Amino acid sequence: MDSRNRLGDIEITDPKAMRALAHPVRLAILERLQRNGPATATQLAPDVGATPSVTSWHLRHLAGFGLVRDAEPGPDRRQRRWEAVARGFRYEPPADPDDEEGWSAAWALTREMFLRGESRANRWLDETAPRLDPDWLRLAGLAETGISVSAGELAAIEDEMERILAPYVMRDASERPADTRGVRLLRYFLPEHIEKQSGDAS
Hints:
The protein is mostly helical and 202 residues long. It contains 7 helices and 5 strands. The strands form 2 sheets. The chain has a 3-stranded antiparallel sheet. Helix 2 packs across helix 4. It starts with 9 loop residues before the first strand and ends in a 32-residue tail after the last helix. The model has no long low-confidence stretch (mean pLDDT 91).
């Protein structure tokens, strides 16, 4: 596996696929399938805030970009079940700074991902945190650390974080300890802007 993708994510490079995913219902569908496994549109609908018919339409749209696919039939073989193609996804803006379509699509998806991360954190505070036992609650929360690094060093930090996470992401369910529970890790990399001083070289 590419060392830049230690977690087995599907890599999205098509701007049209990025725009397709930059939608709250589609992101919710993909997250639900990645976290809980195969489901029908009817099963997904209550969790993603759409009717079964609208959910089915979004599923077909995601399938058109290779992000979801048909799963093995369940007990009721008349119901179409869907599954995520990979346990996660990743994308990045194009290398060409003049690729306006690629940059616009990447930032549309980035904006939606940030909004989703914010709402997820707020839901956790309101709904989940009050029900956690003290041992888990003590481990939860966030940390904010400012560092001064080069672009290459920041890339190396992200790669090292994925190296540490990979064994936990990739292991089979049978290998997990009995007291395992799901944990969401929200990773933000927010480089700061440096104002150029008058006379600085561009």
